[in-house]
Write a structure and sequence with these properties.
globular, alpha+beta, 5-stranded antiparallel β-sheet, 23 helices
């Protein structure tokens, strides 16, 4: 494995030299110990690029290096405000104009997946790719029933290339952890592991089809987003068939303006879609670069987004979703003390952090961007300043939030391209407040209580036996509390987190048990039922910080 990693590093070095980009790597602090490999390599002397603009050289180098590097270029391409124009224009070509593999090879892959000739499955199949991306490419086709579809085919040998580059990323992550001054705070090993799960999942088109089906259900009948239908009988792990979308790419501003599209509404809907996915559905499309988003303009005043490519989706656990929503709402209200307090409570910063100092630092970064359209601010710049703040307060990177942060940057970049005057806060705030109000509504509380009643009933039924056994063991001097020392640190964190909500849980539990006792001894049941339900609601709504 080490030899394969070394060989790949040398191959990367040759590609960078060939395209005249090796000086960027030699300037990176982490890779300076390897600079002699550049000086001694024959590639440095004989294979240097003969020409081409820097944007072209960067794009061609990323294409030659493979899927992971191209995906990095795709992500950068959504932030034209952070890149020189010549580089941004070239990186945009990575969104849907990656060099394709031969259509005859795609035909062979599809026939092997189905185990029969292609003409038995499709009435028509165009071997010329409609579009090519980093992981797969798509071909237009027509089913035997006449439905127009696109057929997505995974690139041959792409898994081997990705697994090889993941080994390189793991090596760099370990180097970062060992040698970078703040490697422990950046948590590079965990970040790479999180990315590894994401990129390998993207290779399974059955998983992508399931993601598309879930997203389609979530937005069924919505005026915001249309998700194409999946044809399950024709889906395989490396082949996926779905409804063909006929719309304009979201980056085609001239085409949308020619049709009289309401660009302002389109931009606002994009923000609403993001926050709806994250907080209402807790299931979000996490690869929203312009190559994956179309616009349907049948009604130009009410344009409809149409998404494709569902290989990367994200979800949040209840704890992270709660803290993110509270952070956003506090941020919208400029309640910086609440933002600071939430960061401490969530464990994102050390428990001994001074809340007043963190509050002042967050205010300093965030206050200047309020009441400004996207044209006058850059979230990239704001994020850089927030990272500086994070470093000062020893804030650890949260790997589980990286997909969300990347998607938010893509949404902001998309909004900037569509309608620079868009007020992100004004658009997002109503969606979040509506979600927060629904979350604490009586209906939501009743539904959550209904889902947990079976478990609660089982616990209540088991409680007398457990208490009897504990009392008996204590009276006989046999009661012991076993503690696994290997998890002592985890236990300490759990105890600290549980302490923050102990008052609410104690009150809620007392009311719950009191209500149960009332119903057991009193002929009038409804007061006991009200007391027990209120206590259960208090326990349910107490944020679970002990995870």
């Amino acid at each position: 494995m080490r030899l394969r990693v070394l060989a790949r590093l040398l191959q990367i070095q040759r590609v960078l030299v060939r395209h005249g980009l090796d000086e960027f790597v030699r300037e990176a602090h982490l890779l300076r110990p390897l600079r002699f490999a550049f000086y001694l390599s024959p590639a440095t002397w004989f294979e240097r690029s003969k020409g081409g603009s820097r944007g072209v050289r960067i794009r061609e180098a990323l294409e030659e290096l493979g899927p992971i590097f191209m995906k990095f270029g795709q992500m950068l391409s959504t932030r034209r405000d952070l890149l020189p124009p010549d580089i941004a224009e070239e990186l945009e070509k990575l969104q849907d104009r990656v060099p394709p593999f031969p259509g005859s090879e795609a035909r062979g892959i599809v026939e092997a997946a189905y185990g029969r000739p292609l003409h038995e499955v499709f009435a028509e199949f165009d071997e010329t790719p409609l579009a090519a991306a980093t992981i797969a490419q798509v071909h237009t086709a027509r089913l035997q029933g006449g439905e127009e579809v696109v057929v997505k085919v995974v690139r041959p040998r792409v898994r081997e290339a990705i697994e090889r580059d993941l080994e390189v990323m793991h090596l760099i992550a370990r180097l970062t952890l060992d040698y970078a001054p703040e490697g422990y705070r950046l948590r590079p090993v965990e970040v790479v592991r999180e990315y590894e799960k994401t990129i390998l999942d993207e290779l399974d088109l059955m998983r992508e089809a399931a993601n598309a089906a879930q997203l389609r259900r979530n937005f069924a009948g919505s005026p915001l987003l249309y998700v194409p239908e999946i044809y399950w009988d024709h889906c395989r792990p490396n082949v996926m068939v779905m409804e063909r979308i006929r719309g304009l790419l979201v980056s085609d501003m001239q085409g949308m303006l020619a049709r009289g599209t309401n660009i302002k509404r389109l931009a606002e809907n994009g923000v609403a879609i993001f926050f709806t996915q994250v907080f209402r559905h807790n299931f979000f499309h996490a690869d929203m670069h312009p190559g994956n988003i179309f616009v349907l303009t049948d009604d130009p005043d009410r344009p409809l987004y149409a998404a494709v490519d569902f290989g990367i989706v994200g979800t949040l656990d209840a704890r992270d979703q709660h803290y993110l929503a509270e952070n956003f709402l506090a941020f919208f209200d400029r309640d910086y003390h609440r933002v600071a307090r939430l960061h401490v409570d969530s464990g994102w910063v050390p428990a001994d952090t001074r809340v007043d100092e963190l509050e002042s630092a967050v205010r300093t970064v965030c206050e200047p961007i309020f009441n400004k359209p996207l044209a006058e601010i850059s979230f990239g710049t704001v994020l850089l300043r927030l990272f500086e703040t994070a470093r000062r307060f020893q804030m650890n990177v949260q790997p589980q939030l990286i997909l969300l942060q990347k998607t938010l940057l893509q949404i902001e970049g998309l909004g900037r391209q569509l309608y620079p005057q868009l007020d992100l806060w004004e658009t997002a705030q109503p969606v979040l407040k509506e979600w927060a109000a629904e979350r604490i509504s009586g209906r939501a509380l009743a539904e959550q209580l209904r889902r947990q009643l079976p478990d609660l009933g089982e616990a209540v039924r088991a409680l007398p036996g457990v208490l009897h056994m504990a009392v008996q063991q204590a009276s006989e001097g046999k009661f012991r509390l076993r503690v696994d020392n290997s998890g002592a640190e985890e236990l300490r964190r759990a105890i600290r987190a549980a302490g923050r909500r102990s008052d609410r849980v104690l009150v809620g539990s007392a009311m719950l048990l009191g209500g149960i006792v009332w119903m057991a001894v009193h002929p009038v049941l409804w007061p006991g039922l009200v007391i027990a339900a209120t206590g259960a609601a208090i326990v349910v709504l107490a944020p679970d910080r002990a995870r």
